[in-house]
Write a structure and sequence with these properties.
heterodimer; A: 357 residues; alpha/beta; Rossmann fold; eight-stranded mixed sheet; 18% strand; B: 623 residues; FAD/NAD(P)-binding domain; 3 domains; five-stranded parallel sheet; 24 helices; 21 strands; 29% helix
Chain lengths: 357, 623
């Protein structure tokens, strides 16, 4: 952890977004994680993404459970709402908050322990409900806070720092999400912000549950030669299936104008999102269709068998309908409704009940 | 780009902008840190080693370091380096026991210096400890050269001046006052092994305009200041025009204000941005209610019946011509009444005492032809330095000329190769362990530069002997030191250790770090996380990193040396290392022969015991 305060001085040419804010305005408190933790890089990517998206800090909510990963919300957007909840129960809190105020941007940060062990049931049902939430897993394969035991995402054969191999099969959050019907599934790497930032941008704008699994190495307990979630191993087995760019309606450039010598027309594809934003897939692996769930599932399984770390925006359902759409709730956030509309009284209740008699 | 060679002492030296800008390469952040620790004697000695006159320069230096200060890139005002130098001098105790021993047995070599100004005194300071017998010939009755004759007492009290000159004379220098050298031919016959000419540029430039010689109320600025310093002139008329806007003009107008001038105007041909005077000297003059009149070009002295009435001026406007040179366009004419005029429009060298047949070559302006590296003239064994070498500079340049001439003289007297200069070296040791001790309060606020306290206006104008600036008190000094960014604590990168976790990139408050594919410099500058538009400042480029073969790029421009990259680095690929320039002095083996302060004392936290030179700290093969 750092003992030096980060100086407030900024680069004189630091760019401002549409709100007149710089990236530094989206920072939080100094990280208390280990020096070199992948999670800090994820934090930096989150800051970059919300800055680019002009997210108003006071219109965003950060939620987390327990673990190293779940400390992340303290390290960005100090001016936003935040909830550090019970272990593995972040989805419930997010569901409640989202039900009450559908207008906020929801950013949930979790880890492999928080999501795939104690919180697995919660994660599954948040996916089912298609809660409008960025669900980011900082996945390092170990329990860092309790000194490096394997988590449920550890690969078979990966060893602890002391050399003991893991023998239980991993739960892969990407395959899990594809199976459960998630409408946005991506995997990335804390050491590759060029890929991670546009994925986070798209995930925040996605209308529904967006699962982003980020390999985020634990420098203290899982960055050794026997690890399959180290910086070196991840880079060596990295396979970028899709290269994505995220464009808001204002900075959208038609594909025809962008096609250059190094992006052939056949290798590029636009997917339009609900708010008019566009996810542009460039140099997609051959025959890979990021809107084909079964194809994505089969491809990822095949590459995992080859020992590769498949990354990129792997699946997106452009017709996704979030929880509120499915439940047919009112446009206006519930918290904004007058009390008498929200709770019309015993007479109205009686009238409703009489319909069922 | 090729990987940066940080083992070349110049690389890290350039990062310490103030030290690089200082002609004498004084270790500025080093002595500021010593002041912060209350070690004023040590801070003084660090100064004395390189600039020889800390108390004098702490009041009068032209401060090339301050415009270079890194803090000016993140906020407006530089660290008050010059005033902190004065703090070290003001608050020091007795340091005389730390001066070098002078050998009783001399080495048999005799050196003559002409003029007892800062250049000659520096030559004597550097040569006396080596056993030379140094004789200084001075035409006036006291030593100091322009430091006393041209700098008024209200800026530099005589006791400060005399004390620091005394340190050198007391080494046993044979100082011959009131002994002008009237013939180089004579001097050459006196059996000296080498001669150093440090007689300055004593001739003030004249202004040949109608009426110039019709009155005795027109003075040459430096001669007039000298007469005031001597006490020959004790008053001036009420209405004074000073022509010129250099620092001499500022001294002339402020002196006039103290000895009778009530209506003093400085007349400038150009406008303020083009003034030669240092901004702070201009400010001080304006504070003393001197009028600064811009864009007035003098055309005539108006003298009636032998009485000076004033001067005529053209009011002009300056515009660049097709070659970008400023050209004046006359707008109008005007007249300013005056009882006295002081000309402060520059000065030049005067070598009437050097005969044409002694083998010293002169150029068309009758300036001696002097080698820029060796400081030797076309006659072997005759050296020039200070203002007499290439015209008017300032005290800190004179000191540096003195050091270089001393190196040459020492080589000359030992049949060495003058062109082969002793190399600069460096120490570079990790400061990471003391990180929390050496970092100033990093909770960075836009800290305002401490303002120098001045004696009240009415009091200071009463006497020419009242020093205007009171110096920083301890509290002010301790506030001001906090503004130093300790640029000498270098961010040092070892690529082979890097795991490319991005921690340093993410934490850097100024976004000066980037990991990216290598490229040509101009193109690479466009691909960094923050724009690197200041091409005067280097880009550091590492070798290919182990995992991806990308490179670590650092834009040195805006780094504020906060140390966070090193603190957040899990593998110590980034380290903070104290850089200590080892500047060579004539005939000395010790890395810091005069201050005797090495990294052991200087390192942050004061706990460093290991010294490494560039040789011993060189990277192992393959790093």
């Amino acid at each position: 952890m750092s003992h030096i305060t980060k100086p407030r001085v900024v680069h004189p040419a630091l760019e401002k977004n549409a709100l007149g804010l710089t990236r530094r305005d989206y920072e939080g408190r100094m990280s208390t994680l280990c020096a070199g933790c992948g999670h800090d890089s994820v934090t930096a990517a989150l800051i970059e993404a919300v800055w680019r998206l002009d997210v108003e800090p006071h219109r965003a909510a950060k939620l987390s459970g327990i673990g190293c990963s779940s400390k992340t919300p303290a390290y960005f957007m100090s001016d936003s709402h935040g909830f550090n909840s019970v272990h593995g129960r972040m989805p419930s809190v997010a569901a409640g908050a989202n039900a009450a105020n559908r207008d906020l941007t929801y950013i949930g940060i979790s880890g492999d322990g928080d999501s795939l062990s104690i919180g697995l049931g919660q994660l599954c049902h948040a996916i089912r409900r298609n809660l409008d939430l960025l669900y980011l897993i900082e996945n390092n394969g170990v329990y860092g806070l309790t000194k490096g035991q394997f988590s449920a995402s550890a690969d078979i054969g990966s060893t602890t720092k002391r050399g003991v191999p893991n023998e239980q099969p991993p739960i892969d959050p990407v395959l899990l999400a594809l199976t459960l019907g998630a409408t946005f599934v991506a995997r990335s790497f804390s050491g590759d912000k060029e890929q991670l930032v546009p994925i986070i941008e798209a995930a925040i704008r996605h209308d529904g549950f967006a699962l982003v699994d980020v390999i985020s190495p634990c420098v203290t307990f899982n960055d050794h030669v026997g690890s399959t979630k180290s910086y070196a191993h991840t880079r060596e087995h990295y396979r970028e299936v899709t290269e994505t760019a995220f464009m808001t309606p204002t900075d959208f450039v038609p594909l025809a104008e962008e096609i250059t010598a190094d992006i052939g027309a056949g290798q590029a594809r636009d997917v339009k999102m609900h708010d008019g934003s566009v996810v542009r897939f460039r140099r997609v692996a051959e025959d890979y269709d990021p809107t084909d769930r079964d194809g994505a599932d089969a491809y990822v399984r095949e590459r995992i068998r080859e020992g590769e770390v498949v990354t990129g925006l792997l699946f997106i359902d452009p017709d996704s309908r979030d929880h509120h759409a499915v439940m047919n709730t009112v446009e206006e956030p519930l918290w904004d409704l007058p009390f008498e509309d929200l709770c019309p009284g015993s007479d109205a209740m009686e009238a409703l009940m009489s319909n069922y008699r | 780009m090729e990987p940066t060679n940080v083992w070349d002492p110049d690389y890290y030296h350039r990062v310490v902008d103030c030290q690089w800008a200082c002609p004498a390469h004084t270790n500025v952040p080093g002595y500021i840190r010593l002041i912060a620790q209350g070690r004023y004697d040590d801070a003084y000695m660090v100064n004395w080693e390189s600039n020889v006159f800390p108390g004098i320069l702490g009041r009068t230096c032209d401060r090339p370091c301050e415009p270079a200060c890194r803090r000016t890139r993140v906020e407006e005002k530089p660290v008050a380096i010059c005033r902190l130098k004065r703090v070290a001098a003001d608050l020091r105790g007795d340091v005389t026991d730390r001066f070098p021993d002078i050998p009783e047995k001399k080495n048999g070599k005799r050196i003559a210096c002409v003029g007892a100004g800062p250049a000659s005194l520096t030559v004597a300071r550097d040569l006396m400890p080596l056993g030379y017998e140094v004789t200084i010939f001075e035409k006036h009755d006291r030593a100091g050269g322009l430091m006393w004759s041209n700098i008024p007492q209200f800026r530099l009290p005589p006791e400060v001046l005399n004390e620091e000159i005394g340190y050198i004379i007391d080494m046993g220098v044979d100082l011959r006052l009131e002994t002008p050298v009237e013939s180089m031919g004579w001097l050459l016959e006196q059996g000296f092994d080498a001669i150093f000419v440090g007689s300055g540029a004593p001739r003030g430039k004249n202004l040949e305009l109608p009426g110039r010689y019709d009155t005795d109320k027109i003075h040459i600025g430096i001669d007039w200041l000298e007469s005031v310093a001597f006490g020959h002139i004790g008053e001036i008329e009420e209405n004074v025009l000073v022509i010129g806007v250099g620092n001499t003009a500022m001294d002339c107008c402020r002196t006039s204000k103290r000895i009778g001038g009530t209506n003093v105007k400085v007349m400038a041909r150009k406008s303020k941005p083009y003034f030669k005077a240092s901004p702070w000297e201009l400010e001080d003059a304006e504070e003393e209610l001197v009028d600064i009149v811009e864009d007035h070009s003098p055309t005539e002295f108006v003298v009636e019946d032998g009485v000076l009435k004033g001067m005529k001026f053209d009011i002009v406007e300056w515009n660049p011509d097709e070659n970008g040179r400023l050209r004046a366009t006359k707008l109008d004419e005007t007249f300013f009444p005056a009882d006295a005029v002081i000309l402060a429009i520059g000065q030049e060298t005067a070598f009437t005492w050097i005969e044409d047949d002694v083998g010293i070559e002169f150029n068309e302006w009758r300036e001696a032809v002097v080698d820029r590296t060796t400081f030797m003239s076309s006659r072997d064994g005759v050296f020039f330095g200070g203002d007499s070498a290439w015209g008017p500079e300032n005290i800190i340049w004179a000191a540096e000329h003195g050091h270089q001439a001393a190196i040459s003289i020492h080589a000359y007297c030992n049949d060495g190769d003058l062109k082969k200069r002793p190399p600069e070296d460096m120490n570079l040791v990790s400061a990471k362990m003391g990180l929390h001790e050496w970092t100033y309060s990093n909770d960075y606020e836009y800290a305002h530069r401490s303002k120098m306290r001045h004696v009240r206006l009415e009091k200071r104008l009463q006497s020419i002997e009242t020093e205007v600036e009171e110096g920083f008190d301890i509290e002010q000094a301790l506030t001001e030191v906090e503004r130093c960014l300790n640029c000498d604590i270098q961010t040092h990168f070892t690529g082979s250790l890097c795991i490319e976790c991005d921690a340093c990139l993410d934490i850097c408050p100024l976004n000066c770090l980037t990991i990216t594919a290598n490229g040509e410099e101009a193109e690479l500058r466009t691909r960094l996380l923050a724009p690197a538009t200041n091409a005067d400042q280097a880009l550091y480029v590492s070798e290919g990193l182990p995992q991806t073969d990308r490179v670590m790029v650092k834009d040195e421009d805006l780094c504020i040396h906060c140390g966070l990259c090193a603190e957040r680095c899990p593998t110590a690929a980034w380290d903070m290392r104290t850089f200590d320039l080892l500047k060579p002095y004539a005939g000395q083996d010790h890395p810091h022969p005069y201050s005797r302060i090495g990294l052991a004392e200087m390192a942050p936290g004061g706990q460093m015991t290991v010294e490494a030179t560039a040789d011993t700290a060189a990277p192992p093969a393959g790093v």
